[in-house]
Amino acid sequence: MTTIIDALNTFFWGYVLIYVLLAVGVFFTIRLGFLQFRHFPEFFRSVLRAPATDKSGITPIQALCTSLASRVGTGNLAGVAVAITLGGPGAIFWMWMVALVGMATAYSESTLAQLFKVRTESGEFRGGPAFYIAKGLNAPWAATIFSICLILTFGLVFSAVQANSIADATLGAFGVPKLATGVVLALISGVVIFGGIKRIAQIAEWVVPFMAGAYLLMALYVIGNNLSEVPAVLATIVKSAFGLEEAVGGIAGAMLNGIKRGLFSNEAGMGSAPNIAAVAVANPHHPSSQGLVQALGVFIDTLLICTATALMILLSGVVASPELTGIHLTQAAMSDHIGGAGTYFIAIAIFFFAFTSIIGNYTYAENAMVYLKLNNRAGLTVLRTLALLMVVWGAYASVATVFDAADAAMGLMATINLVAICLLSGLVAKLTRDYFAQNREGTPALNLTDYPELAGKIDQEIWGEQPATAAHVLGSKA
Question: Which of 456, 352, 440 is nearest to 448 (CA)?
Fold first, then answer.
């Protein structure tokens, strides 16, 4: 089994996905007319518009915070440190590049997820790649494989990975036994998870801005204290990326490690974030509006938070090495900046980053259960219980083969999703042209008569509605 899993991971992550994910990002960037550069201000407007009053889903900002809860995890602290160790400072430049093109991929998959979402019997929105694969491509078999892989990876095993990182950090900083950390973490997670997706979104809406804000403020403090050195560090990042300055692994090592860590961190094209994008109530009432929201998530994850970690490491007097890497390098760098409190700060940051990843990842698995028609009370209870048991197990003991199996499943999941969004790229391009053409004239809205090819494939009732915003409701009352 280990041999098979290793072979799958070598195939997916060594030869296929690293290059295909990047190529797909470039493809959508060109096909959509460099949308992430030309329309960047619209990303913020899509998040900050007044939420619609439809109670079937969550608000755009809740969807953004929940996807960030999943995206922003240990990879933003430990993964960046590993990239610098293996690829030198130049790896950060390639993380930036993969995020910039990945924004187009994230926009595309989340736009499709919005378009093909459904309303469950309980009246709530659900959707994701499984739905646009089954309905848009008429490939329910591929959607089933995707859903199973999503539940195994994001719903179960990745929760164990995040718990393991929290347990390691709290043991090193506070001396708390790993098992105790796992039990407490499972209890806290259980309170949130058993409340369902809406409760998770509400918690994420409060925790994620606080978590990201505190971390970025610390980064600004460090940058401010070392302002004169920042231009030299930025120059080193760019020079190392192109082999103009001696670096670990040379240009190939910088590029490969930067791309790999960037993709793992922002998840663009993986098929994960679209699951929560579909749950949002779109405002304006057009699928593209939620694609823009999730594209902003990639920017925040990599261009802001990963960059903050990189600068704090590179501005410190700590030198990366095979012996000092991962979270230990980040902790050592922070200790260099603010003394012994640095170790505690990173341990606390890891707790918030990893905890929110656990609850964010769970929302994706619940959407997959809806597609598989296992979202009854018994099915969801089993999923939630298993997820919490994996938290306890992951905190106490990590088994490499299980984690490698999750990587293999995620590789298969991502491959299916990338093929699907490329085959549906014509529809994405049409939706994008439609949105921005209407946006120049007023407020965009999906007009079903303009999309006869979607007859019988999308929920006509959802897209025939025009939900009012809170602002409109207040205006009508006045």
Answer: 456
- Name residue 351's amino acid: F
- pLDDT at residue number 59: 86
Statement: residue 468 has pLDDT above 70: no
Angle at which helix 158-174 crosses helix 377-396, to 10 degrees, equals 40
Confidence of residue 476 (pLDDT cuts 50, 70, 90): very low
Tell me what the mean pLDDT of segment 12-23 comes to.
80
State what percent of residues in the chain have pLDDT above 90: 33
CATH of residue 221: 1.20.1740
Q: Evaluate whether residue 469 is within a structural domain.
A: no
DSSP H/E element including 118: strand 118-119
Q: How many domains does the chain have?
A: 1
Whether the Cβ atoms of residue 150 and residue 156 lie closer than 8 Å to each other: no
Does a structural domain hold residue 476? Answer: no
Q: Which amino acid is at 67?
A: S
Which of 149-158, 230-239, 301-310, 325-334 shows the lowest mean pLDDT across its residues? Answer: 325-334
Structural domain includes residue 26: yes
Q: Token pair of 403, please? A: 């984690």
The closest of 314, 338, 339 to 230, measured between CA atoms, is 314
Q: Are strands 125-126 and 118-119 parallel, antiparallel or unpaired?
A: antiparallel
Please, is 66 exposed, middle or buried when counting C-beta atoms within 10 Å of its C-beta (0-12, 13-18, 19+)? buried
| Domain assignment of residue 252, yes or no | yes
Determine the Cα–Cα distance for residues 301 and 18; give it in Å rounded to an integer. 18
Domain containing residue 228: 2-443
Sequence length of the chain is 478
For residue 382, the 8-state DSSP code is: H
Supply the mean pLDDT for the chain.
Answer: 85
DSSP state of 449: G
Distance of alpha carbon 62 from the chain centroid: 14
- Distance (Å, whole) CA 285 – CA 469: 10
Q: Percent helix, strand and coil across the chain, each rounded to 5? A: 80, 0, 20
The pTM for the full model equals 0.88
Helix (H) / strand (E) containing 125:
strand 125-126
The whole-angstrom separation of Cα 9 and Cα 110 is 26
